[in-house]
Design goal:
By secondary structure, the chain is of the alpha/beta class. Helices cover 15% and strands 44% of the residues. The protein is built from two helices and eight strands; from the N terminus they run E-E-H-E-E-E-E-H-E-E. The strands form two sheets. It has a four-stranded mixed β-sheet. A four-stranded mixed β-sheet has the order 3-4-6-5.
Amino acid sequence: MKLRIKGNSLRLRITPSEMARLLETGRLEESIRFGPGPDERLTYAVEFTPTAAALTVRYAPGEVSILVSSAAARQWADGPEVGLYGQAAIDRDTLELAVEKDFACLDKNDPENVDTFPNPKQGAVC
């Protein structure tokens, strides 16, 4: 799973094998370590929740999770949509949220595109 943080936006990109695990378990997570201690890491996750009407975010020290409606996620996984998008109101600001399929890059060779979704823009340059 790829994590992108830019300004006030948070985006996760998911490969086909990760999508299969997410559909099977209802949660997908990864961590990045910044030091040797157990508190020196950031875990980022996407998880299903039956009660979510839209994408929401949950933050706890050391972990950020994007919560997705179970029904919306299953429909997205089986359909042509690139991703699920939403916003979370944070005080007087807005956090943009996205969970997207990780498509093959058209200017990379096949080994670098292993475990990616077929790119719908075949013939263009990434």
